Amino acid sequence: MAAVAKADAKNDNTMRSTHLTIEAAADAAEKENQQISVAVVDRNGNTILAMRGDGVGPQSFESTVKKAYTAVSWNAPSSRLVKCLANVPTLKDIPGTLFLGGGASVTANSAPIAGFGGAGAPSTGLDEKSPGRRRRSGEVVRRGSPTDR
Amino acid sequence: MAAVAKADAKNDNTMRSTHLTIEAAADAAEKENQQISVAVVDRNGNTILAMRGDGVGPQSFESTVKKAYTAVSWNAPSSRLVKCLANVPTLKDIPGTLFLGGGASVTANSAPIAGFGGAGAPSTGLDEKSPGRRRRSGEVVRRGSPTDR
Amino acid sequence: MAAVAKADAKNDNTMRSTHLTIEAAADAAEKENQQISVAVVDRNGNTILAMRGDGVGPQSFESTVKKAYTAVSWNAPSSRLVKCLANVPTLKDIPGTLFLGGGASVTANSAPIAGFGGAGAPSTGLDEKSPGRRRRSGEVVRRGSPTDR
Amino acid sequence: MAAVAKADAKNDNTMRSTHLTIEAAADAAEKENQQISVAVVDRNGNTILAMRGDGVGPQSFESTVKKAYTAVSWNAPSSRLVKCLANVPTLKDIPGTLFLGGGASVTANSAPIAGFGGAGAPSTGLDEKSPGRRRRSGEVVRRGSPTDR
Amino acid sequence: MAAVAKADAKNDNTMRSTHLTIEAAADAAEKENQQISVAVVDRNGNTILAMRGDGVGPQSFESTVKKAYTAVSWNAPSSRLVKCLANVPTLKDIPGTLFLGGGASVTANSAPIAGFGGAGAPSTGLDEKSPGRRRRSGEVVRRGSPTDR
Amino acid sequence: MAAVAKADAKNDNTMRSTHLTIEAAADAAEKENQQISVAVVDRNGNTILAMRGDGVGPQSFESTVKKAYTAVSWNAPSSRLVKCLANVPTLKDIPGTLFLGGGASVTANSAPIAGFGGAGAPSTGLDEKSPGRRRRSGEVVRRGSPTDR
Amino acid sequence: MAAVAKADAKNDNTMRSTHLTIEAAADAAEKENQQISVAVVDRNGNTILAMRGDGVGPQSFESTVKKAYTAVSWNAPSSRLVKCLANVPTLKDIPGTLFLGGGASVTANSAPIAGFGGAGAPSTGLDEKSPGRRRRSGEVVRRGSPTDR
Amino acid sequence: MAAVAKADAKNDNTMRSTHLTIEAAADAAEKENQQISVAVVDRNGNTILAMRGDGVGPQSFESTVKKAYTAVSWNAPSSRLVKCLANVPTLKDIPGTLFLGGGASVTANSAPIAGFGGAGAPSTGLDEKSPGRRRRSGEVVRRGSPTDR
After folding, report:
1. Which residues of H touch A26 (CB under 8 A)?
2. Where would you tag: which of A7, E6, E48, G4 has the fewest CB atoms within 10 A of its CB?
3. Cβ(F13)–Cβ(F108) under 8 Å?
4. Residue D46 pLDDT > 50, yes or no?
5. CB contact under 8 A, D69 and A58
6. How close is the nearest chain G Cα to the Cα of D40, in Å?
7. Which residues contact G93 (CB under 8 A, 6 or more apart)?
8. Where do the H-state alpha helices sit in chain H?
9. Contact at 8 Å (CB) between G68 and G41?
10. CB-based touch A/G (3+ pairs, under 8 A)
């Protein structure tokens, strides 16, 4: 997520930030050897980029889009938004949202300009013995993958 | 919500009340400098007005329609209906509904004639330190916005 | 529901039982002065009858169909099925179902042949002070209406 | 499920394993006298086979597909995945999934190559007195039916 | 259709006309020995009644609703609206519509208050040799059935 | 449409043009005594405003949104785009579009910034004898209504 | 199709006929080395069997279901129904239908009891020079495949 | 399209070809200064990549996915498939397809392994006077853009 986060620092131009976000997303996928799915949505929730990872579970494709949508909707990482459900559990019933770690908001001058989502899994399934290799979200992703931590 | 609520007092004619509701909704949006989304549905749940706020999160548009639908369905503010979920949690599985603060019912002679929904957020995201500026619902709205309190 | 339940006792012929179910549903609606919504589905979940009540909330129309579908799926009243969620909460994620009181299964020779659903509300909204007139389900229906008790 | 599980041991070829899975699914349905619904999805979640059981509830058809999808998504039996919801309850909001016992993943060389789902019920409805004949999932299936135990 | 058409002449009250329309629809289905599907929608296109005929093709259920919707949308029989497609072929791309004979508009004081749709077929399929018993629309209905002629 | 078209001449600022478009749409509806439905979408096809006219057919609500979407997609009035179907008839199969008169594109510095759609009908139905009062599109609208001519 | 057609001659029992249809469909797929997709729907249009062929285009899966639905709806082979469009072109706008060769109706005592659909293609694409190996329908299938001729 | 087409010549490995297709798609978009939308689907029609162009009409995003799906379904360029509609006009009613120029099939050893779709338009709208800069398909794309010629 670091590369994506820098998009904010470097730009004050929305269009250029969005491009950098797409590039950062593509780079993150490349670094993972294409084994993660990534998505970018604009401020209005329209999907700008959706890319399916090699060998990842089919659920990752649509969930990355929804994580990105959720992050840009409230301008916060989706892992932080998950905690809001303790107080307002019906937030997650809003169409288009998914309250699961792996989404991040990209900002320019403090305003949200895009959302990013990532998810992916090696083909070895759920193994709760190796938490280092997997996210707490239950969607198994590799260490260093473009999630929101 | 005050302006909307008055529609009830002034009218005994459904059609006229609906018009006043639309006007009250538009006025509320105007007063917020268009930074909230608003919706009005009729007694049968048909959308009469849906207006997207400037710079609000994309989730606000569809959620206002659903809040309005929920309020008119049971003729009660959606914030009150949220409390019913403690006893009947599956009420929220009824299609078209959203149990989240921000919906209100408009009545003429005690009968529901329309539903109203509002939602919106400045681009600063979730900030639980400033509860005064945001609703408990988790959908961040400005003080005085046309929600159901 | 008594009239509907009798369909079982009187028939051993599926088609005739379904007709009697439709008639019982129509009669129940008639008795309530058309102020409830009713639905009948066949054993395979196909809607056979759907009728919207006068002045009821819009949510009642689709929810009656889903209650009927749920009842015939497990051959049990939906109010009893609600209790199963305590042990298996994800049952309610099965598409087409709604776990809310008001659905009943109709049987011939102990096998389910149809599902029935009812819902409705006078225009006075939620009033928790008069539990006698309303069902615990939160969908407000009149005493004696064709629900599953 | 034993027959299905063996597909893994016998093959290292994806296509052949998928065929064996379909055959095992068909055999399982046959053994149950066609009174269960079964489904097979490929690694990418596409439905390869969907077969509706005789006399089963209508909800079983679509739920078998979703169970198979869920199992292949995380390469684990759906009954095990249900337990993950205790920690990550929003996993079940991912589109296409259903966290309910009855789904299994089929693997070749440890990698998931297909998902399998089964569900079905005799027409006698829910009877909590005979747990031996029914799965804890709440979807009533016969002893020995192709679920994931 | 005659019985339905009379609803207009007898009433000047919308609610009562709608009730008469439902009754006329039910009577028409009864006269056909339940072998037709019928539907009634209100002025805003909301389904008020949908009833599936015995032994009719499955396509008839949804198509009656759409015929009724189409008729009330333009306040004209759907068979007449079909002819409009010669000049404006894309009219039929409007969601919810179906330009096929069998829909009728019900009016009170010349204004549309409801739409009606009917369709049905004996199980003998298409037989173009007996045009007297079937409508030109290709949806086979019996002579005298509640279509729009 | 004249009022809407002027939005282009007066502005070079996207946000302001969109606001003017909304106002022009609301004014047009007002002038027609609320008897037309109107919609505004932004450059990316997101609905900004949708308003249902009094007494218009139910089909008008969704069709205005689609007309606006179509106009902004190709930056041309929908009536002109209808003519393109003679050469490329499958253009109309693109999701979200509706090739029917009544849509217009709003531009700032020649670039499309919003789409507008309008439709509506008095309750008198189709009357091809009075073409002056109705559009050739088959969606009956009043002279001077905010269509695209 | 011959094997499927015989189901009619041999049976007068609906359930048994449906089973034979499924078996005939599975046999047909087997004979084609699994390189076709097949589907069976019951009289009410519910999918009983859907099986995706190896290496066939993805469009074949859903289209077989719709062909089967179309055939059972009017109790006629879909290739014959295609010809009806010359007189009633809007028949094809009925939801769930697909007017394309490859669907057949299965009857018992002249009444339709099930629909069958088949489609498939070798990976060589459209080659109009070898009509013998492909159907005129444009969905390329092998000689002898279970279509409706 | 040239770069994409070469993927076939260089590879005999499906996975690698798909990667090259994605890269070729990204390169094509890059060359056009991101002013086109592009999409890649796999042999089973699953979306692998979807990327929205800068400033293109909103309809381009979903239509590129459908063009790619159509091309891989019949292993032919979508512009060639358009011609098939003259003989089999209902082919275009198959769900997921779009018969419009701009889709191409990618093959390895003559078998289809992926589909590609492209669409895009400068913000100047339809201008039939400059056919050299635009495709006959009506979706305006730049000379040299990754369509199927």
Report:
1. 26
2. E6
3. yes
4. yes
5. yes
6. 9
7. E92, E98, E99, E100
8. 2-10, 14-31, 59-74, 78-84
9. yes
10. no
Question: pLDDT for F49-85, tens place per residue?
Answer: 999 998 899 999 999 999 999 999 999 999 999 999 9
Whether residue F4 is contained in a domain is answered as no
Q: How many domains does chain F have?
A: 1
**pLDDT values of chain G reduced to their tens digit, one per residue, 149 residues:** 333 434 444 444 455 667 777 888 878 788 887 789 999 999 999 999 999 998 899 999 999 999 999 999 999 999 999 999 999 999 999 999 999 999 999 888 778 889 999 997 444 344 333 333 333 333 433 333 333 33
Are D and E neighbours with ≥3 CB pairs closer than 8 A? no
The answer to whether the beta carbons of residues A84 and B139 sit under 8 Å apart is no
Structural domain includes residue C123 = yes
| Angle, helices A2-10/A14-31, rounded to nearest 10 degrees | 160
Give whole-number Cα distances, H104 to E18, H6, H29, in Å: 54, 12, 15
Please report which confidence band the pLDDT of residue D45 belongs to, taking 50, 70 and 90 as the band edges.
very high
User: What does the pLDDT read at residue D12?
Assistant: 41
Subunits with 3+ Cβ pairs within 8 Å of D are A, C, G, H
Task: With a cut of 50, list the residues of chain E below it in pLDDT.
Answer: 1-13, 121-149
Among chain B residues, the shortest Cα distance to C126 is held by: B74
Instruction: For D42, name the nearest residue in chain H, comparing CA atoms only.
Output: H44
Q: What is the dihedral of CA B71, B74, B76, B77, to 10 degrees?
A: -30
Quick check: D23 pLDDT over 70?
A: yes
- Chain C residues near any Cβ of chain B (below 8 Å): 55, 57-60, 62-63, 66, 82, 85, 92, 98-100, 121, 123-126, 136-140
pLDDT for the residue D15: 57
Chain D residues with CB-CB distance to G34 below 8 A: 19
Candidate from C34-38, C87-91, F1-5 with smallest mean pLDDT: F1-5
Q: Do D98 and C96 touch (CB under 8 A)?
A: no
Looking at the predicted complex, does its ipTM rise above 0.90?
no
Give the total residue count for chain F: 149
Q: Could you report the per-residue pLDDT of H122-148, keeping only the tens digit for each?
A: 443 443 333 333 333 334 333 333 333
| Whether the predicted pLDDT of B46 surpasses 70 | yes
Name beta bridge partners: B117: B39, B103
Length of chain G: 149
Is the CB of E48 less than 8 angstroms away from the CB of C52? yes
- Predicted TM-score of the model (pTM): 0.84
Nearest chain G Cα distance for residue D58, angstroms: 9
Count of pairs with CB atoms under 8 A, one residue in D, one in G: 32
CATH number at residue D95: 3.30.450.150
User: Mapping DSSP to helix (H, G, I), strand (E, B) and coil, where does residue D115 land?
Assistant: strand
Q: Identify the contact set of chain A against chain D, taking CB-CB distances under 8 A.
A: 55, 57-60, 62-63, 66, 82, 85, 92, 98-100, 121, 123-126, 136-140
Nearest to F107 by CA among F12, F22, F19: F12
Other C-beta atoms within 10 Å of H114: how many?
29
Identify from H73, H79, H82 which residue to disrupt to test chain G contact, counting G C-beta atoms within 10 A and taking the largest count: H73
CA distances from residue D18 to D1, D49, D116, D122, H88 in whole angstroms, order as listed: 15, 10, 10, 29, 34
Is the residue at E9 inside a domain? no
H14 against B72, higher pLDDT:
B72
User: What number of H helices and E strands is found in chain F?
Assistant: 4, 4
Our CA-based measurement puts residue A101 at a distance from the nearest CA of chain D, in whole angstroms, of 10
Q: Which of B122-126, C128-132, D31-35, F67-71 has the highest mean pLDDT?
A: F67-71
G146 lies in a domain? Answer: no
Over residues C23-52, mean pLDDT: 88
| Chain D hits for G54, Cβ within 8 Å | 15
Amino acid sitting at position D82: V
SS3 (DSSP) at H115: strand
What residues in A contact H34, CB-CB < 8 Å? Answer: 19
